[in-house]
What we know:
Elements lengths: L7 H8 L3 H14 L18 H13 L5 H10 L11 H12 L10 E2 L5 E2 L4 H5 L12 H5 L14
Antiparallel strand pairs: 1-2
Helix pairs in contact: 1-2, 3-5, 4-5
Amino acid sequence: MAHHGIRPCVISRQLRVSHGCVSKILCRYQETGSIRPGAIGGSKPRQVATPDVEKRIEEYKRENPGMFSWEIRDKLLKDGVCDRSTVPSVSSISRVLRARFGKKDDEDDCDKKDEDGEKKTKHSIDGILGDKCIESDSICTSSQLFGWVEIEGDPNVGQR
């Protein structure tokens, strides 16, 4: 309608919307060439740490693999690499470490494979019990596992 020279106030009356709504849509069309709404919320990815700071974070982690992100942040401040206004947050340091080194340290044990090539996760029964049930390559029974005593022929003994 605006292309045909109809004024925004007339458009707003015909469409039964506010004049501000029509003005906003026309302004967006002039700026972007589209009347589609922009993104709501979210944030643009930003470079929190400079390349020099990222290199220093990597150095600290290589020197001391057990160092936590908050310790790295403190060390950046202590060594004068950053000041209070430019030091990256703990989550930003963790993000840099994940990008450079992959998994976190505590995730490394989580997806080990056993002799058969099957995954053995920490939260599985094998991962929780570890090698407690393996005695000279024999399979652990529930009585060995829980310390129950079973007497042959008596199904009531050893039950809890």
